[in-house]
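Render this sequence as a predicted structure.
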Amino acid sequence: TPLTSIINYVDLLKTTQQTDPKAAEYIQVLDRKSQRLKKLTEDLVEASKASPGTLAVHREMLDSLGENAVLTPHLGEMSRLIGMPVSHITMDLPETARTFSERYGAVLVMKDAKTLVADGKSRLYVNTCGNSGMATGGSGDVLAGMLVSLLGQGLAPLEAAAAAAWLHGAAGDRCAKRLGMAAMLPHDIFADLGAIFAELER
């Protein structure tokens, strides 16, 4: 999962610091700025072993998120997080996203036909690409993996979330044209994602 990937990334840096001078510098930055996030990550991983949907069950954990955290719920998960029915959320998706992000200080990627990315301050992005062929198990994991990769490359949480949402949707649209929405699977998106990166580098 993305949470365990963060922990593994820190461990990897620690094992390479003797051969890579920059690794030690990265570790210092992580230790200085991410102790609270690391502790929360460990708590969530441990709690999730006993309780699926940990944040929805233990909402007090949301207060420990902070601005370096990014959540990527679909509407069903969002409903459980805030204790409101999906019908209530869909009445005003932007307001729901803004209110949640402002309340907990985290970046929110609320997945729907139009994915919303909010930072709880003043910025709200609406991603209009993507299609119903992506509404399958595993598609959200692809998005989360892309998000963690961008964070690991140094993008700020909001920028990483917005970029991941667009790249995920754009690659999904290309995949749908190539294979059809009924036939596409989450792993099929990667081929089209590579094509997008190649075009952006030209």
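Summary. The CA atoms of residues 3 and 45 lie 7 Å apart. Residues 157-179 form the longest helix (23 residues).
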